[in-house]
Amino acid sequence: MSGNKARLDAISAVINYKPISEPLNFAxxxxxxxxxxxxxxxxxMKQRLPKPVYKSIMNTIQKGAPLDTSTADVVAAAMKDWAIxxxxxxxxxxxxxxxxxxxxxxxxxxxxxxxxxxxxxxxxEQLIQGEPDGSSFPTGGIRPTFExxxxxxxxxxxxxxxxxxxxxxxxxxxxxxxxxxxEALDKKTPLLRAMKALNTQAQRVVKLFGDTDGSLITSTxxxxxxxxxxxxxxxxxxxxxxxxxxxxxxxxxxxxxxFDDHYFGAIPERVLACMMETERELYKLGVPVKTRHNEVAPxxxxxxxxxxxxxxxxxxxxxxxxxxxRVAEKYGMVCVTHEKPFAGVNGSGKHVNFSFGSATLxxxxxxxxxxxxxxxxLIFCAAVIRxxxxxxxxxxxxxxxxxxxxxxxxxxxPPAIISIFLGDQLTDVFExxxxxxxxxxxxxxxxxxxxxxxPPLPKxxxxxxxxxxxxxTGNKFxxxxxxxxxxxxxxxxVLNTIVAESIDYIASQLEAESDNLEAAIQKVLQEILxxxxxxxxxxxxxxxxxxxxxxxxxxxNLRTAVDAIPEFGSEAAVELxxxxxxxxxxxxxxxxxVKLEQYAMxxxxxxxxxxxxxxxxxxxxxxxxxxxxxxTCANLKAVGxxxxxxxxxxxxxxxxxxxxxxxxxxxxxxxxxxxxxEEAEHALKKLIPAMNTVREYADTLETIVADDLWPLxxxxxxxxxx
Length: 722
Ligand code: ADP
Ligand code: MG
Fold this sequence. Notes:
Elements: H1 5-15, H2 31-34, E1 39-40, H3 42-48, H4 51-63, H5 69-85, E2 88-95, E3 103-108, E4 110-112, E5 118-120, H6 124-128, E6 129-130, E7 150-154, E8 160-165, E9 168-179, H7 188-208, E10 217-231, H8 232-236, H9 239-244, H10 269-284, E11 289-294, E12 300-305, E13 308-309, H11 310-330, E14 333-336, E15 350-358, E16 362-363, H12 371-390, H13 392-397, E17 420-421, H14 424-434, E18 441-443, E19 446-448, E20 470-472, E21 477-479, H15 489-512, H16 517-532, H17 544-553, H18 561-564, H19 571-579, H20 585-638, H21 646-669, H22 676-702, H23 715-720
Parallel strand pairs: 2-9, 17-20
Antiparallel strand pairs: 1-8, 2-3, 4-5, 6-7, 7-9, 8-9, 10-12, 10-13, 10-14, 10-15, 11-12, 15-16, 15-21, 18-19, 20-21
Helix pairs in contact: 4-5, 7-15, 10-11, 12-15, 12-16, 14-16, 15-16, 20-21, 20-22, 21-22
């Protein structure tokens, strides 16, 4: 049998797959009991804390009141006892640095006692504040390494939890990561600030509508995660997948996804087993995963949780990615979350569903049943429309990174042009408002802005448009252009901030004319639709016609991350972030630097890998085959046959091209470094085209060279053997 070792091992792994652990007995331990069993939840706190302490901590969680040291001490002690009962030996402050990854530093509970023994200790101070050093995280110049101090501070609104490992458990405390000057070094802090801004502004609007109870308005998020699972044998035989997270070589398989036979198809047994265990682990951590299914590409899947408050959803999203990867390994597979692991095969996104609401008012982006609720809905919906149009390039910048460049605008994912899909019915309502057709009048005590003479607002828009980067889906907006590998923290930070700004604007208009609120509502809605209606597009976002039309409408089309990232630091963005106390100008600048630097680094690593693999794996395979062909040719000639040298000629030509293009790539790599912006430009304009050329020759060789000589697992194998 021919085939490289990785293929044979993978085939054997699939054929010999046996359940690796006791079957999960959900009848014995129902999901209900399992759920959040490893979370130091408010329910656990209620049970374990003295009443006044519990009240005090709830005050902090629900209203943002400061947490005093005596409360923290009691909470810490209870948390420690709970964690030790669950087998914890260490605690970790978990934080989210600008790399987009999750970081944790573990400390033991044990403290030496002076007499040679040790006691388990965990004080309020240790709970509230940590000092992980972490001087090697990128900060974009905020914190020179000589003043390495970075502090972590417990985000009380996100529960502590226990992470299990075969050899013990760890108490994990979600934290914000800040410099000693209080500047945010992470992704959580700005999100918390932005959520606060949204609450402040939204309160003004609901107050005008007579809702004065002041219950906290929080933004909610439900992120849908797409990912690939491939056999670990293949992964380990692909230095590109291992190091860059995506394949840098690989000829298209004979059968791609054109049959659509994988989408929502039956889930293979090993994959399903892996999904179930992942879900069980996530349940324990209180992550409410809900749906699972096959995605469009072979080997591609999706998991989605029930929505939660945006900051909790963000923490849970990070946990979900960690857990997917961890459990997959147990099943002999690797979970690949890169946006485009396989060229020519559908990439992966992370649809971030976004809304906001409060405990008493419910979801504020739900059309509602009464004219009163409808009017409020239209106001908030218009705020989102205005926000997305006004800050379209900022929104584009938060989804800009090297990986997502392979998706956006590539006719399979939302285009790089930001637009909003509203659906026909809602668009119609707004069109009428825009035309001034909806007259306002006041009937009894209910607010009537005329729109209730229109058909009832669509509760669940039936039509789905998968080509829109930002779609209204009945009672929430779905930001579809987010990359599968990225943290949702910054997209949510920006959404909260830009929507807060629009609500601020609207609230100011309405407050100024509050004696005739209905007229004021009509006026502001109309004005917004006239000024920002251009962002609404219900058609095919993939079409060329849309690219043309979008340009005519004056919508930005920032094709690459290098075009888009600087928009995060535009004058308008800096002003916006400063005004709502989300990011200081320095914090903004640092993020632009880090993003550009990460872009340049990611592409440079890929370029180096491309050259290395071309030289040490593909070139040797090609010349071995070339030599075999030449030997056959010489042998045949010796016994009097003529030999058709077509294949030999072709291979020889391709080998030469491979060598030349690799040399060019290496020349491009050898350039002198400049500013981060110059580096990113160089990566985009020089390295990527050079890499693509090398790949082209290599991929052609893959379709000619004898299969048993080819050193890299093929697309066919990686996508279909599972
Ligand atoms: P669909 O499958 O039609 O896209 P779902 O109702 O399954 O819609 O929702 C997809 C995601 O949107 C889920 O994660 C869900 O929890 C989330 N979602 C639903 N309502 C909201 C909301 N109000 N705010 C944020 N996310 C929401
Ligand atoms: Mg969806």
